[in-house]
Amino acid sequence: MTYYVYVEPDPERRTAAGAAYADDSFDVVHQMSDLDEHLQRNPETLLVVIGATVDLEEALSFAAYQRVQRPLLGALLLRPSVEPDVLARAMRSGIREVIQELDIEGIRASAARSVDLSKALSTTMRGTDGTLNAKVITVFAGKGGCGKSVVATNLAAALSAQGTRRVLLVDLDLQFGDVAIMLQLPPARSITDAIGMAGRLDETGLRSVLTAYRPNFDVLLAPASPAEGEHVSRELVSEVLEVARGMYDFVVVDTPPFVTDQVLAALDLSDWFVPIVTPDLPTLKSIRLTVEMFDLLEYPRERRLVVFNRADSQVGLTVKDVEEAVGAHLSVHMPSSRDVPVSVNKGIPITLDDPTHPVSLAMRRLADRCAGTAAAEPPPKRRMFAFGRKR
C-alpha cells in the first residue's frame, strides 16, 4: 500500500530519494502535473513530499487546494534551505512541515509524524465505533427515461461538497448501467471484479474495484456487458454496501427501472429512498406502484424523498394532480433544461459544471435533505387517487 509519494523533477534527487526510502510505502513521480493522476490511482495516499526543485508557487497552490479537497492528505515541502518567509507561506497554505532537503533523518521523522496525524484525523472523522457509518441513498424509478441516473450522479456530486465528504456512487443497473458513460470513466473495473471476494470482502478489496472520479468521490461501475451482471448476487450487493458504510459518508445507489433481488438488497439497507417521477401518465402509474411496494415492504415514509423531475413541463398536469396520482408528497422539484443533456455529453454533472444552475440548486436541496442539513417540510394531506384497485 502506497502511503506517501515523492515529487521531484530532478533525476539525481529522485535517485537519491529512492536509495533513502526504498520500501513498499514510498512512490515517486516526476512532475506535479503527474500527481493528480497518481492520487486518483492511489486514494489511500496519506502524504506528498514535494521536492526541492518544484516551483514554490506550484507547491503552495497544490497544498492550499488539497487542504480542502483531501483533508487527510498531508504535504511536506523540501527546500535547499529553510527560510522564514517560505516557512510562513507554507504553513498558511496547509503544508505541514518544511525540511532542508539533505536532512534525511528529519524528512523521515516528519513523514512519520504526518502519516500518524492523517491516520488520527481519519479516526476522529469516524463514528464512536471506528466506522464512518455512511448513509445509503437509493435512487429508483419504475420506468426508464425519468432521469434517474442524472439524479443519482448529480446527487452524489452535491453530497461530495467539493470533496469535503467521502461519497461512493454505485451503478446497480447490472445490464445497462450508464454511469461510466455519463462520467466518462474507463470501464476497467466493475462490481464483477468483486465476485471472487464474495464472503470475505474487506476495505482493501473494495478499493481495488473502485474507480476514482474526483477527490473523495469514487464510483463502483456496472459490468461492461449484460452477461457479466448475471453473476452478481444479492448477497454480494449487501456485502459491498456494508463494507462501503465504513469507508464513506454517503453511498448513492443508481438502479435499473425494475425490481431485482440486487435492488431489494440495496433498498433493505437504505437510509433514504429517492423515487423519481415525471409528469406523464405511464410514469405516474409506475411511481404509484412503487409507493405501494414501499408500503408493503414497510420502508419508512419519512425516509422517502420523491423527486419531481421536469417539474415545469407544460403538459396539463399540476403539482397537486401529480401528488394525488402518486399518493406521496413531492419533496424536490427539478426543472427541465437542455443544459442537463449538454452536461451529460461533457461527462460532468451539472451540479459541478454550473453550481448556480436551477437544476444544481434543486440537487443541493435534495442533498441537504439526505445529509440532514435541511428541515423536512410536512407533507400535505393525501387524497386517494389510484390507477387501479387500492390495496
Tell me about this structure:
The chain is of the alpha/beta class and 391 residues long. It folds into two domains: 4-124, 3-Layer(aba) Sandwich (Rossmann fold); 135-371, 3-Layer(aba) Sandwich (Rossmann fold), CATH 3.40.50. It is built from 16 helices and 13 strands. The protein has helices spanning 11-20, 35-41, 56-69, 84-93, 104-124, 148-160, 179-182, 203-207, 226-229, 234-245, 261-268, 281-296, 319-326, 339-346, 350-353, 358-371; strands spanning 4-7, 26-29, 47-50, 74-79, 97-100, 135-140, 167-171, 211-214, 217-220, 250-254, 272-277, 306-309, 330-334. The protein has an eight-stranded mixed sheet, sandwiched between helices. It has a five-stranded parallel sheet with strand order 2-1-3-4-5, with helices on both faces. Helix 3 (56-69) packs parallel to helix 4 and helix 6 (148-160) crosses helix 16. It is elongated and about 70 Å long. The relative contact order is 0.10. Mean pLDDT is 82; it is low at 127-131 and 375-391.
List keywords for this structure.
391 residues, alpha/beta, Rossmann fold, 2 domains, 8-stranded mixed β-sheet, 16% strand, elongated
